[in-house]
Write a structure and sequence with these properties.
The protein is of the alpha/beta class. The chain contains five helices and eight strands, in the order βββαβαβαββαβα. α1 runs parallel beside α5. The longest helix is centred in the middle third of the chain and has 17 residues.
């Protein structure tokens, strides 16, 4: 069951879709961040929807949302600064809504940087169960300085035409993160969404 609503954000209401699985796992919730707002990124992006379904099918209540200035969310694009605050606001709301103490946090491209940065600023007492970074733009944002947990999962196609795969592999290797390399896979995971979904489901089992 999915419910669309608007939740309070730092600069006004944020558009959110919250999905409850048939048999939700108690005490857990997932939040997924979408790709770049200035390149048509929004919460209905097919990679985001794939992550949303993977979380739902793993028994997790899951929230996807539009960053400020996208869809029905108030505000204007803030170059991955205010968007981190947007993400934290949605996390706080989703945690309360689900009665959760454990979080799965994920994002695609631009959204993976926002998710990664937000993961270092979670409220005390909230456990980060899993961080999922799909095609993280390590060449554009200061991801090396974030100090992510070693069980972070990075999924990266080696034929990505937007994010340099070797830069991602080098960053993930230096940070000691888990990496799933998809041979011949483009940035937008054309023809590879079922595979991406299964990778995430396997990680959440």
């Amino acid at each position: 069951m999915s419910v669309s609503s608007h939740v309070p954000g730092p600069v006004g209401p944020l558009q959110v879709r919250f999905t409850l699985p048939p048999n939700p796992k108690g005490g857990q919730v997932a939040v997924i961040c979408h790709p770049h707002p200035l390149h048509e990124g929004n919460m209905n992006n097919k990679v985001v929807s794939t992550l949303e379904r993977a979380c739902r099918d793993s028994g997790l209540p899951v929230a996807v949302f539009n960053f400020r200035g996208v869809g029905e969310s108030a505000g204007v694009h803030d170059h991955a600064v205010g968007e981190i605050d947007d993400c934290l606001a949605v996390i706080d709301w989703a945690v309360r809504e689900a009665g959760a103490s454990s979080l799965v946090l994920g994002g695609f491209s631009f959204g993976s940087y926002v998710a990664a940065a937000a993961s270092t600023r979670l409220q005390p007492g909230l456990k980060l169960r899993q961080l999922l970074l799909i095609a993280p733009p390590v060449h554009h944002y200061p991801m090396a300085s974030l100090g992510l947990t070693p069980d972070t999962l990075v999924v990266q196609g080696d034929a990505d035409e937007i994010v340099p795969p070797e830069a991602v592999y080098a960053w993930a290797g230096q940070a000691g993160l888990l990496v799933e390399r998809l041979s011949g896979c483009s940035h937008f995971f054309h023809g590879r969404l079922p595979e991406l979904k299964q990778i995430v489901v396997n990680q959440l089992i």
